[in-house]
Write a structure and sequence with these properties.
mainly alpha
Length: 153
């Protein structure tokens, strides 16, 4: 298995757990969507950052640290972008998605700037957890790739 795919899958699995935590700890309605949006954003960001920066199982520890820090922080912003796309589609298709006050959810264009503010507060509350998730995923990916390369040779 390619290391970038493994890193993305591991971050996605951790994203499901973090989404459940967000849903259980949040006050209000509509937070169950994070159980879906977090794994999607975690996979996309982690997959592409590892593929672009680390490249071809060339494990430079500096590059892995950069990918870990970036994926642990950028996934917050992209999670809100994905959330706004799903919520806007759901609102206009069947009216099922509303914001926490019962109004129309922010559309993706509003979320381009609003997502920055939401990401800041999300990082304050859950940033330590997403960074830890990304670190664990990177360590496991590194060890798995090294172990599998020794088996092949």
């Amino acid at each position: 298995m390619k290391s970038y795919l493994l890193f993305g899958i591991l971050n996605s699995i951790f994203g499901i757990f973090i989404g459940i935590i967000v849903y259980l700890l949040s006050i209000g309605d509509g937070y169950e969507i994070f159980i879906v949006t977090l794994p999607i954003s975690n996979f996309i960001i982690s997959f592409f950052l590892w593929k672009i920066i680390v490249r071809k199982d060339n494990f430079n520890i500096f590059k892995i640290i950069i990918v870990t820090l970036l994926s642990g922080t950028l996934n917050h912003y992209f999670c809100f972008i994905i959330y706004s796309i799903i919520a806007t589609l759901g609102f206009y298709i069947n009216g099922s998605f509303v914001d926490s006050l019962g109004g129309r959810p922010a559309n993706p264009f509003e979320m381009l700037t609003g997502g920055l503010y939401l990401s800041f507060f999300s990082l304050l509350l859950f940033g330590w957890l997403t960074l830890l998730m990304s670190i664990i995923s990177a360590i496991f990916t590194y060890l798995f790739s090294k172990f599998s390369s020794k088996i092949k040779s």
